[in-house]
Amino acid sequence: MHEYDIGSKLRELRLARNLTLQVVAREIGFSIALLSQIENNHISPPIATLSKLARFFKVKMSSLFVEKDEEKKYEIIRRDDRPVISHVVSRGGSSHGYFFETLSSGMKSKKMVPFIITVSDEVQDDATYSSEGESFIHVLSGSFFILLNGNRITLEEGDSIYFDTSLEHRFLPAQGVKTTILEVTTGRT
C-alpha cells in the first residue's frame, strides 16, 4: 500500500500564500496543534477536514493525492497499491475509528472521489461533519451506523445510502464488527 504526503502539500499551499498556522487556524476554525500535526503527517484528517482545507486554499481535494502534475485520462489502481489514509482523527485530535483508501488519486479533473473505508470499533469522538456535495455509500461487509442529520441509521452488508453531504453526518461502528464500505463523493474533488 502507498501513503501520500498530504501534510507537505498543505504546508506548501499555506507557505505559498505567506500564511501562518495561526491565521489558517483562525480562518477555518481548527486548532493550531491539529494543523501542525496534519502538516507533519503525524495524523490523517477525515475527508471532511481535507475538504475544508482544500476549499480554504482554493484547490481540488484530489490535488492533495496527486503525485505528478500531468493530467491523466484514465487511471488503474491495483489492489496492493491503494493509497491509505490511516488513523483518521477528528478536529480535536481523537480517533474516528476508521481509515480510508482512495481508489482514484491521479486524475485532476474528476467529478467523483471513490474510497474504500474500513470502520473499526476504536471511536473516541462523536463530532459530525458536513461539506459541499453528495455521497454514495455501499456496505461491502459488516454493518455500521451512520448519523445523518440527527438520525442514527443502521446499514448492513449489501445496503446503500445516497445523501447530500451538507447534512451533518458521521460513521459509527457496530459493537465488535469490522466493516468495509465503498464511498463515492462529489463536490469535494
Summary tags:
single chain, 189 residues, alpha+beta, three-stranded antiparallel sheet, 4 helices, 9 strands, 28% strand, globular
Describe this structure in words.
It is a single chain. The protein is globular and about 45 Å long. It has helices at residues 6-16, 21-28, 32-39, 47-57, and strands spanning 84-85, 98-102, 112-119, 134-141, 143-148, 151-156, 160-164, 169-173, 179-186. 31% of the residues are buried. A six-stranded antiparallel sheet has the order 1-2-3-9-4-7, with no helix packed on it. A three-stranded antiparallel sheet has the order 6-5-8, with no helix packed on it. It is built from four helices and nine strands; from the N terminus they run ααααβββββββββ. By secondary structure, the protein is of the alpha+beta class.
